[in-house]
């Protein structure tokens, strides 16, 4: 788009429309977000954040996968575990019916707290940089 | 059976659902209110809403039915339904919220800047939504028949009418409130009768299940040619990864105020689901004890509704059955409305709004489009459910999970974590996953149950369709670096940057 029309030509109307789709209003850029999104330092920090979060995510997923895929393999490979009893309760029912649920909740809580901590540390570094 | 009382609770559940929706209509003034509940929902209530929406016919009736039928091996279903949220939490909860996407197609477009991928996602989201709606209608049909003797189409029709009215009247805002109430309603309707049945069983020294080793011990109930271990592993993979790609689950994340709240919401959801599923086991096990055999042609899915009459005498059983029937209808209604809202949103944005715009030259209200879309979203699966064969509810919804895991899971996981995902790669992954998953499920239905590897691989395809889809997306992306959206890095930054920085 040109900012100045040639002097001789009659002023033409230029239609100005937004090509934005979606509902969100344009966000005002702030000093911090500019630092984060545009400078090399910011980019470096962000790559660090991304990597830390991914490492955490994969660690949790690894534990979950080992447990959930390991239990069927255990029952299949070691038939004795199928008829194991803990007190009056059969081991497979106890683990699959009850114990796995608090374990999943605990894993979720630990992950959530850890992810928040990583983000807070990152935010502190970025604001100090400013 | 306990006719009049059950009809009373079912009617009450329907009326309360409708009443809350209409009541909330007062606040639903602008189109954005219809969609997003104004984003003022706390994690706790949002978690109850997610739980309320997620616990469907399959959870309320189907899980107990499968445990009744298969014993310990069926316990993997509720575990899979629950662990899906752990995967969702770890991989996409906060980034998905930060993407600002309302539906899965929104996310695809925001991340990849491609209208083509968006349309592909729209088709898949509608397909998965409809696949998930069919068992809800079937559950409603046989529940109403069981408690009143009404013909099969009536129960499903009741759900259809209530859902269309509720969604069209209130949109998302009312639904959030309604869903949160539905969770507690469902939990009470399942847990209180379970407690009473257990107490009666204890006091009267009731029977214990007389079952074989195949029912009590894992992997002993089936012939070796059925490859039971593979089936179980594949089932867990499909359920665990499928939750992330369910259209009605993703929509809920938009109502969290920020990424941190999205994570906290998910932790609450896991607790609420675990609490609920532990009670379903009571029905499965005591069902075996009191109802050693079901008559031919009786669905195992009805065992939850049949148990009170066997255990508690007289009026007590009528009251408990009525509570369970009401809870079951709460399950059908809440899941169906959640799915209907999700499918409606997609249909409205991607089909009806452009279509109406062309027909009326832009001279229509957006709310009209939303309401029209709501009708289409619900009537189609209702019609299909009338002709679909009867499959155990919990097994039926697994189909939707498998398709979601093979299509949207790779898109979301790679989209959130991998900046080199290209438009071509994403599209190739979606198409490959969709074709393989739907193809093998259709083949498995057409060929019927069988033994040997082909039958096992087709009946539980997630273990090979999901890796294939992910691999296709990665390989094609690496081959088409020009297809990486220019803003990929910036988008990824936005998805992972805490709000306290971007909004400072």
Structure characteristics:
heterodimer; A: 130 residues; mainly alpha; two-stranded antiparallel sheet; 3 helices; 65% helix; 3% strand; elongated; disordered N terminus; B: 504 residues; Sodium/glucose cotransporter; globular; cell membrane (chain B); Na/solute_symporter (chain B)
The CATH first-level class of chain B comes to Mainly Alpha
Main β-sheet description of chain A:
2 strands, antiparallel
Average pLDDT number of chain A: 77
- Gap from first CA to last CA of chain B: 62 Å
Range of helix content of chain A? 55-70%
**What count of helical segments of chain B does DSSP give?**
22
Q: The CATH topology of chain B, please?
A: Sodium/glucose cotransporter
Biggest interface, CB < 8 A: A-B, 52 and 52 residues
Radius of gyration of chain A: 28 Å
Strand order of the largest sheet of chain A: 1-2
Tell me the Rg of chain B in angstroms.
22 Å
Family (chain B): Belongs to the sodium:solute symporter (SSF) (TC 2.A.21) family.
Keywords (chain B): Cell membrane, Ion transport, Membrane, Sodium, Symport, Transmembrane, Transmembrane helix, Transport
Protein name (chain B): Cation acetate symporter
Membrane topology (chain B): Multi-pass membrane protein
Briefly, what is this?
The complex is a heterodimer of chains A (130) and B (504). By secondary structure, chain A is mainly α.
